[in-house]
Amino acid sequence: xxxxxxxxxxxxxxxxxxxxxxxxxxxxxxxxxxxxxxxxxxxxxxxxxxxxxxxxxxxxxxxxxxxxxxx
Length: 71
Description:
By secondary structure, the chain is mainly alpha-helical. The chain has helices at 3-13, 24-31, 35-43, 60-70, and strands spanning 21-23, 57-59.
């Protein structure tokens, strides 16, 4: 299965109850980690954020991509 197809299929299934753009608290719940760890992942660029606001907003697709890279 091509990588793009995997991302598309996973996106439709994984975290369906979450909006397309999530905040740090939601990322923390999605990954089962603390908020400090989420801030570290964003700061190091392991999870890409949306650079347009003062608060951290993360596309749900970036969280899924991070998970797929880790497995």
